[in-house]
User: Fold this.
Amino acid sequence: PCCPLQVIRPEPCGVCGSRIRFGKTAIKCCQCQLLLHTKCREQCPSLCAPRPRHHAWPREGVLADFAPSTTPLVPPLVVQCVTEVERRGLTETGLYRVPGAEQLVQEWKRRLLRAGGALPALSSVTDIHVVCGVLKDFLRGLKEPLVTFSLHPAFLSAADILDDAACDTALRHVVSKLPPANRDTLAFLMLHLLKVSHSPDCKMDVLNLSRVFGPTLVGHSSANPTPLTIMEDTPRQCKVVARLLSLPPDFWRGFVGTEQENLVPT
Assistant:
């Protein structure tokens, strides 16, 4: 159900992204709080079904807090963002490097986290870079990075091994020690980023992607790193992601490949 309201402060329309001006009449979805121009209502793919409030996700937490109860344990928000990017973003130059409008990124992240189970459709987000921004911001906002604080040193050490075969073996071993939700989500993201790296239009090779995702996925070994640690960690974070992306896709498919059809949101 939607209710018309008068806009008191200018806010972006959830469909077209342009600002709804002060005093104008807009429509707000009572379930997911999506705000849109009255003229954009027809383009809104679907309105939310009512759902219990207590199913909403926490605003922050470790990855497992957002994961489903059945394998593969990849949070629906991650699946939906990746699916949308693969559907219409693999021809965009600078995917994940070009920023989306920050206000829209935060608005959509809030909306998805508030929704919990049945997520509002991302097909109404005009700019695919906003969807990329939501995914990166969600991963950055976790209480600990995807590789976890406790395994952080092991990932860095494994990536430093000069012999390629020994490095691969060490990384596979450390990945297998991750909590199941972190491991499945990492596998899902690696398969996605490999697709991005193989798209000539995106111009985002493994090196570019590892620079973008190093700080996001690997982070630091504690919640409050010193400035010196941040400086020392940055090149090593990128190296970890680059080495992970050099592992064969079949290794990652072993975690999510067999149930891949369960991942696509309905």
Residues 2-43 form a domain with the Wheat Germ Agglutinin (Isolectin 2); domain 1 fold (CATH 3.30.60.20).
